[in-house]
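Continued from yesterday's entry.
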Amino acid sequence: KNGEYIGAFAAYGYLKDPEDKNHLVVDGYAADVVRDIFAMKLAGCSLKAIADRLNRDGILSPLQYMLRDCECRQVVMKEPEADAIVLGELKRKLRRVLDEEELRLEKRADVLAAGSRVESLRNALEAAKKAKQKLFEKLVDREIERAVFLERKKGYDAEIGRLEQEISDAGLAERIDRDADGEARERADVARSFLDVGEMTEEIWERFVKGACVYPDGRIEVRWNFGDEME
């Protein structure tokens, strides 16, 4: 109630004041990282794009940054001090995966509701072919000169060729999107299936955790084993 900080550890971007444990000061390095993250998000970058950029730049995660100078001991499955923390961190990661994939699927649903691009292109192709046929009929009925026919036919042939190529390209793109949608649903299903578990199990540990380090003060660093299914 006095506005004093009483947490065990300072949030990322801050340090505990060495002269007053209940007062926080700005950590210049981490604060710059936080500003960069906000700038990338405001610029429209996805969470994955931001994470990829930070990884490329060699930026440590908040936990890794906090533990960078610590000594630790390895822990294995079922050490009581590890279970709750590891499971909690895993659920946060899975919730992020689920949120991202559900957002992707919602956006795709909106696109599909607006209509297929392939269908629109096929309608345009059919119209171009009908126009070309009418042009031929006008030539037969001598309503236009042959030179005019050849010139207009050349334009229709080019338009038909362009539309056929676009239909092929758009069809391939839609197939790729459908495959990506299937992968997104699989990732979302995997994330959803583990969000409600109440305790760590051998299956969860072996599937998602490479290992963990318990530090003398009780902190834990987790090394994840997320496969392609969750990337």
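--- second protein ---
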Amino acid sequence: MTERKNVLLDKSLQLSLDIIEYTELLETEHKYVIARQLMKSGTSIGANIHEAQHSESPLDFVHKLKIAAKEAEETSYWIKLCLMSKNYPDCIELQNQVLEIQKLLTKIIFSTKQTIERKNNQ
């Protein structure tokens, strides 16, 4: 039996790796505060998505993905600051990755909520 590919897991893992690389670059430029904030929120997205894979119920699954979505929103904020600040390395690709993950999270949360509602109305 082959394992199903989980695009959201893969994208969140790659984002975490890219966030680590970018924040290490920020630290070499002594931009520690932003690096720390971005590292925390950016890697938390994937951690919450991975945790959701072993949730206790569909509602718990949605809850964990909502936390990941909040972390993605915070990460988007830090990336936006980097993009708008002078003397910060380019991170437009990180912004694109976060946006893609946000779209996936929104779709999955919405469809899971619909499935829960259908089951409750039967």
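The mean pLDDT is 96. The CA atoms of residues 105 and 111 lie 10 Å apart. Will compare against the first tomorrow.
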